[in-house]
Design goal:
Blueprint lengths: L1 H34 L3 H23 L7 H7 L3 H11 L4 H8 L3 H15 L4 H10 L9
Length: 142
C-alpha cells in the first residue's frame, strides 16, 4: 500500500511538471508571436527545455534501485540475510556464500533457511524472485 501511494505521488509530480512545461511553452509561444522572433529561436527554446527535462527524467528513472528498507524490516530480514540473498541471486552455491562471507557452511545454510522461512518460500529461485519483486535486491544486469 505504501508503494502504491508513493507511485501515485510520483505520477502527480510528473503530471504537474509536464503541465507546467506546457504552460511555459505556451507563454514562450505567445511572446514570440507578439515580438516576431524567428521560429528557429522558438524551436531552440523548446528543444532545450525538453532536453533538460529528458535528462532529468532519465536520471530519475534509471538510477540504481535502492533496497526497500521498509519491506526488509517488515519481513524481519537482517542486513546479513540480504547479503546472502544478493549472493544467491548471483548464482553462488552454499559453500561459495560461506566463503564470501567468511562463515562456516552451516552458518550459511542457517541464513538461507531463515530467509526461506521469512519469505515463505521453499526454493532458492523462489526466494530470489520474491526478493526482486519486493525490491529487496537489485534486478539482474543485462
Amino acid at each position: 500500500m505504501k508503494k502504491l501511494r508513493k507511485l501515485n505521488r510520483i505520477y502527480w509530480i510528473y503530471g504537474g511538471i509536464m503541465g507546467l512545461l506546457m504552460i511555459i511553452l505556451e507563454v514562450i509561444h505567445y511572446k514570440t508571436m507578439m515580438r516576431d522572433v524567428e521560429i528557429e529561436v522558438f524551436g531552440g527554446v523548446i528543444g532545450l527545455l525538453f532536453l533538460v527535462f529528458g535528462i532529468w527524467l532519465g536520471a530519475k528513472f534509471f538510477k540504481k534501485p535502492s533496497i526497500d528498507k521498509y519491506d526488509a524490516d517488515k519481513l524481519g530480514l537482517s542486513k546479513r540475510e540480504i547479503e546472502v540473498l544478493e549472493l544467491l541471486a548471483n548464482g553462488y552455491s552454499n559453500q561459495e556464500v560461506a566463503d564470501k562471507l567468511f562463515v562456516s557452511l552451516n552458518t550459511a545454510k542457517t541464513h538461507i533457511s531463515n530467509i526461506y522461512s521469512k519469505l515463505n518460500v521453499k526454493r532458492r529461485t523462489q526466494a530470489v524472485q520474491k526478493a526482486r519483486d519486493l525490491a529487496l535486491i537489485t534486478p539482474p544486469k543485462g
